[in-house]
Design a protein that fits this description.
The chain is mainly α. It has seven helices and three strands, in the order H-H-E-E-E-H-H-H-H-H. The protein has one domain.
């Protein structure tokens, strides 16, 4: 498939968007990681304050390794922050921590898209693991049943990527509202946090775009959309 001109044409825009998104998030985070907050609050402190203000209790905040490996685990109710975010007092650190706190608030309030994404995790993982072998074998041997099965499994992974978008956008929206409301950041500082979170959101948009375009390609080549010429 990677030698198919149609595949290259269709996936190239998503690939370029992904490269740009990675550059944007790293450069923006790097820029604002050098700008300390006026109050000197660390990412971990900001997350605790936001959760407290939202009335969310019982969420542990832990240190984890890796660059921008920050995430909220709804199963164990643990908010894990990377070293630079956990102990950093920069606008970037506080913005990322607030975003992850937004996920914890989503969980506590029963935010529907987060529930759906959590439910899709196992089927999405299964779909990702089975889709490619079925599609490759199906296209090699022109086995329509295998191709269609692969498309079904791949669709589960695509659905996960699409559902992820409102979850991430909403978490950032909650963060950008909570930061000035709780007095953690001033209005001018929030503008920097917004740039960091907007850049991070672009990576999810790029991933979803790539997944959708690949699905459309498979549907075209399988003859489900248009024809397979």
């Amino acid at each position: 498939m990677i030698f198919d001109p149609l595949y290259i044409i269709m996936i190239l825009p998503a690939l370029l968007l992904s490269i740009y998104a990675q550059f944007k998030v790293k450069s923006t985070y790097s820029r604002f990681s050098k700008v300390s907050t006026y109050r000197g609050i660390t990412g971990a402190q900001a997350a605790r304050e936001i959760l407290r203000s939202a009335g969310v209790h019982g969420v542990d905040i832990e240190l984890t390794r890796g660059f921008l490996s920050d995430h909220y685990d709804p199963r164990s109710r643990v908010l894990r922050l990377s070293e630079s975010v956990y102990a950093g007092d920069s606008i970037a650190s506080v913005g990322v921590a607030a975003h992850e706190a937004g996920h914890a608030i989503q969980h506590a309030h029963g935010y529907a898209p987060l529930k759906l994404r959590s439910a899709l995790v196992p089927v999405s993982s299964l779909g990702s693991n089975l889709a490619w072998p079925l599609l490759i074998i199906g296209f090699i041997f022109m086995a329509q049943s295998l191709i269609l099965a692969g498309i079904v499994f791949f669709s589960l992974a695509v659905l996960f990527q699409i559902v992820t978008l409102p979850v991430e956008f909403n978490a950032s929206s909650r963060a950008l509202q909570a930061l000035p409301a709780s007095g953690i950041l001033s209005d001018s500082e929030v503008a920097g946090a917004r740039k960091v979170l907007t850049a991070a959101a672009l990576t999810y948009v790029a991933a979803a775009t790539a997944a959708v375009l690949q699905l459309v390609y498979f549907l075209l080549r399988a003859g489900v959309l248009g024809n397979d010429d």
